[in-house]
UniProtKB/TrEMBL annotation:
It comes from Viridothelium virens. Residues 228-369 form the O-methyltransferase C-terminal domain. This is S-adenosyl-L-methionine-dependent methyltransferase. The lineage of its organism: Eukaryota, Fungi, Dikarya, Ascomycota, Pezizomycotina. The active site is at H299. GO terms for biological process: methylation. The keyword Transferase applies. Keywords: Methyltransferase, S-adenosyl-L-methionine, Transferase.
């Protein structure tokens, strides 16, 4: 009776899988619900084995990337046996069997018969070059810092880390400079990190999907071609300036990309965007802009340093100016695991943090600023535009 019942339940689950919605948002919702149910169903044996062996998945996935296994299977039109895979990878068959057996056990590849494998949906994802670079980045750079974290926190008496010159990453790599400077001197790690950054929010909304820049920042007094409308402070190579220009091709006024000189020198072509070398620790040279935009800058710094950067902008603002902070705003409860793990990545790498709305208020207060409104544009990570004005 019990067996029949469980077989019926499994059949019901399979029917849910077959009828899973195609649109990404609904699919994500279903995935979150099913994952949550799977964890609630989990017995102690599975819990201990799953948690204790978590690092192994990333390790074996890196072996598969090094051997090109995901690529080979994803590009094959039919299942491949060990002979084929040995010829293509040059690896010993006994070892290959062990690697593939493990990968199949966690659905990273699909086993179609004895010693025969094909790509699964997960193989297809992991074979993509940007995602494979992410496997390398997280294994080579993040995992050593995560490994260091428990001892680091014990040694620092469980105080929240705030000093970028004293982070788990620095200990793991035995360096005495901030990780973002160290990585610039290590091209292999830099390339993997940049590829990972470019893909990790793939498929998510972008800020103009939820925030109407023209209505929010260009209404009111007249804008002329001389009016600075958008200054991207610490804007990297200009992706957000490009996004703004793409979404608002007829926008009047100046759009300005600011960053350190080497970054500005590498910026995208960006027609219609002024490129300006500027150090954000010094007074903001563009006065009275409609919007000073900052994306993923302040989460790198503790409150005092963040307030110092913001004060440079406050001094440049006029009555029509706002600051747009594009960052995660963590909820008070129910933080998604993807957001929570990013917070720990910031802690381990940079002694930095993601913030709740209350924590944003506390930081802004130190710079004489307050929140006008928060527009969430990506629910899962709580990526948001925080519209900020002087108090
Ligand atoms: C995490 S990245 C964010 C880049 C960009 N805003 C984005 O979201 O893609 C931090 C940026 O801050 C820039 N940066 C760091 N220190 C700076 C400084 N003192 N003045 C101006 N930009 C700086 C870096 O060059 C880098 O482009």
């Amino acid at each position: 009776m019990a067996t029949t019942n469980v077989e019926t339940q499994i059949a019901q689950l399979q029917s849910i899988l077959q009828n899973a919605p195609k649109d990404p948002a609904s699919r994500q919702k279903l995935y979150d619900a099913v994952s949550d149910m799977a964890l609630k169903l989990e017995g102690s044996g599975d819990t201990m084995q799953r948690v204790c062996y978590l690092p192994l998945q990333l390790s074996v996935a890196n072996i598969a990337v090094d051997l090109g296994l995901f690529d080979i299977l994803a590009n094959s039109t039919s299942p491949l046996g060990l002979d084929d895979l040995q010829k293509k990878t040059g690896a010993d068959q006994v070892l290959l069997r062990r690697v593939l057996r493990y990968l199949a056990s966690v659905n990273m590849v699909e086993e179609t018969g004895a010693d025969t494998f094909k790509a699964s949906n997960i193989t297809q994802t992991l074979s993509r070059p940007l995602i494979a670079a992410g496997l390398r980045h997280n294994f080579n750079m993040c995992a050593p810092a995560f490994q260091e974290l428990p001892k680091f926190l014990k040694d620092t008496k469980y105080q929240n880390p705030y000093d970028v010159m004293n982070s788990p990453f620095q200990r793991a790599f035995q360096i005495d400079e901030p990780p973002f400077l160290w990585v610039l001197k290590h091209p292999y790690h830099l390339e993997n990190a940049n590829k990972w950054m470019s893909v990790q929010r793939e498929g998510s909304n972008e800020w103009p999907d939820a925030f109407n820049f023209e209505a929010e920042c260009c209404a009111g007094s007249k804008i002329t071609p001389e009016t600075p409308v958008f200054v991207d402070v610490g804007g990297g190579i200009g992706h957000q300036c490009q996004l703004l220009k793409d979404r608002y091709p007829n926008i009047q006024g100046r759009v300005i990309l600011q960053d350190q000189p080497p970054m500005v020198a590498q910026a995208l072509p960006l027609p219609g965007v002024e490129k300006m070398a500027h150090d954000f620790w010094t007074p903001e040279p563009v006065k009275g802009a409609r919007a000073y935009y900052m994306r993923n800058i302040l989460h790198d710094y503790p409150d005092e340093a963040g307030a110092k950067i913001l004060r440079q902008l406050v001094d440049a603002m006029d009555k029509d100016s706002v600051i747009l902070i594009d960052e995660m705003v963590l909820p008070t409860t129910g933080t998604h695991w993807r957001a929570a793990q990013l917070d720990f990545t910031m802690m381990s790498a940079m002694a930095a943090m993601e913030r709740t709305e209350q924590q944003w208020k506390e930081l802004l207060d130190k710079a004489g600023l307050k929140i006008k409104k928060v527009v969430v544009y990506n629910e899962q990570l709580r990526d948001s535009i925080i519209v900020v004005v002087p108090k």
